[in-house]
Specification:
alpha/beta, Helicase, Ruva Protein, domain 3, Dna Topoisomerase Vi A Subunit, Chain: A, domain 2, 2 domains, 5-stranded mixed beta sheet, two-stranded antiparallel sheet, 8 helices
């Protein structure tokens, strides 16, 4: 974006906002000018929050969830079931499953789903790390909680092929979830039933 009427710092902010998912040029411009209209305190707090995000967060070296300490609190919790691992696509899915208060195992965050058409392959996800956890740990069951989408189904099928030869039980969440939906939008009751009705693969 180039416009002599708009200062370079504002243009940079608009272009940065526009890189966020779901934010187009118009929304990015609205956000930038909202912060400019006497919202300097909010802009400073936003800057501090973003700086804290960059400086204080990383990924857990065990499950790859976002954390400020390594291992993350869930992996470090001695009361969590060590032999049960739930595989999810994104950290937001973990929050949804935790809200059910039904799952007491651990997690593994893939950070996406396989989608060859979009250039997302196994090496782009945390799949080899999952295999390593299964080989080295005392994991007895892996629950595949990928989203009920074509990409999620494809990822689950791929994981079954990779994990079954390792001698671990592989299950999938029951189909109380709507096709094409994301876990982060599912209510706690639906997720609880999906956990309870998981099926062996």
């Amino acid at each position: 974006m180039t416009n002599a009427a708009i200062p370079p710092s504002v243009i940079q902010l608009i272009e940065t906002f526009a890189e966020l998912p779901g934010v187009g040029p118009k929304t990015a411009s609205r956000l930038a000018f909202f912060l400019l209209r006497g919202r300097s305190e909010l802009a400073l707090r936003l800057g501090e929050a973003l700086q804290g995000l960059v400086e204080n967060t990383s990924f857990c070296s065990t499950c790859y969830n976002v954390t400020e300490e390594d291992p993350c609190p869930i992996c470090a919790d001695p009361l969590r079931d060590r032999d049960l691992v739930c595989v999810i696509e994104e950290p937001l899915d973990l929050l949804s499953l935790e809200r059910t208060e039904k799952y007491r195992g651990r997690y593994h965050v893939l950070h996406g789903a396989l989608s060859p058409l979009e250039g997302i392959f196994a090496e782009d996800l945390r799949i080899s790390e999952l295999e390593q956890r299964v080989r080295e740990g005392d994991i007895k069951e892996v629950i595949l909680a990928t989203n009920p989408t074509s990409e999620g189904d494809y990822t689950a099928a791929y994981l079954v092929q990779r994990l079954k030869p390792l001698g671990v039980r592989v299950t999938r969440l029951g189909r109380g979830l709507p096709m094409g939906g994301d876990l982060e939008y599912a209510d706690s009751i639906t997720l609880s039933r999906a956990l309870e009705s998981r099926q062996e693969l």
